Amino acid sequence: GAVVSQHPSRVICKSGTSVKIECRSLDFQATTMFWYRQFPKQSLMLMATSNEGSKATYEQGVEKDKFLINHASLTLSTLTVTSAHPEDSSFYICSARPTPNTEAFFGQGTRLTVV
Amino acid sequence: GEDVEQSLFLSVREGDSSVINCTYTDSSSTYLYWYKQEPGAGLQLLTYIFSNMDMKQDQRLTVLLNKKDKHLSLRIADTQTGDSAIYFCAEIPGNTGFQKLVFGTGTRLLVSP
Asked: I want to staple B100 with a disulfide (CB 3.0 to 4.6 A). Which of A15, B49, B64, B96 is the partner?
């Protein structure tokens, strides 16, 4: 299947700093990528849909100024957690589909810990 | 709403069959998926089924779909300890423009020797 690479896999940062997470589709182009957040022992919550060349679409309750998304190319989307706080600590996962309405492939996830 | 329901926990012995159930919400969903998540890892696509199918078999995995009841199940034959993980069903509802995956609550499968 298609490969989605996410980096870094783990990051620890201090409160108040910003952290950037990258999501790359390695063997296909993705005009749309998705960012999810997963709390311990819970399901995945869609945060936003990243659209290449245009603004991301955020889900209700997700702060767009807090979670900045940039989809600068057909193979790269980035999520920046700005002014991170301990409550932002979570597992963040991206996904992409080679074509709409087909199976989605997921990155390995990023474990963010804010201290 | 968009709640996709799963039982939270399933425990089986190695060699037994496991059946994980899912109730989804949108009858217009054209694809339904099963994903596996091991601890601290991303999601691995296991299998998927088209909505015009009743059953799909893929090696040890069998997916059954009951569209009338909006019920999906995943059967794992000859379950192994390596199958211990969290299993998520997912749908792509038509009211999202067939774009967004909506995940179930996840079923934690524990396989004991």
From this structure: B96
Low-confidence spans in chain B with pLDDT less than 50: 1
pLDDT for the residue B1: 44
Residues A5/A107, Cβ–Cβ less than 8 Å: yes
DSSP annotation string for A39-65: -TTS-EEEEEEEETTS--EEPTT--TT
pLDDT at B98: 61
Share of chain B above pLDDT 90, in %: 64
Q: Tell me the one-letter amino acid at A59.
A: E
Question: What tens digit of pLDDT does each residue of B22-32 get?
Answer: 998 887 877 88
Weakly modelled stretches of chain A, pLDDT under 50: none
Phi-psi region of B95 (alpha: psi -120 to 50; beta: other; left: phi over 0): alpha
Q: Is B80 helix (H, G, I), strand (E, B) or coil?
A: coil
> Which candidate, A1, A104, A4, places its Cα nearest to that of B90?
A104
- Closest-CA distance of chain B to residue A28, Å: 17
Contact of B9 with B18, CB cutoff 8 Å: no
d(CA B102, CA B28): 13
Residues of B in contact with A105 (CB under 8 A): 45
Residue B83 tokens, joined? 């199958």
CA gap B65, B88 in Å, rounded = 15
Select from B40, B42, B100 the Cβ nearest to the Cβ of A106. B42
Contact A113, A89 (CB under 8 A): yes
- Phi, psi dihedrals of residue A46, rounded to the nearest 5°: -70, 125
The answer to whether the CB atoms of B100 and A46 lie below 8 A apart is yes
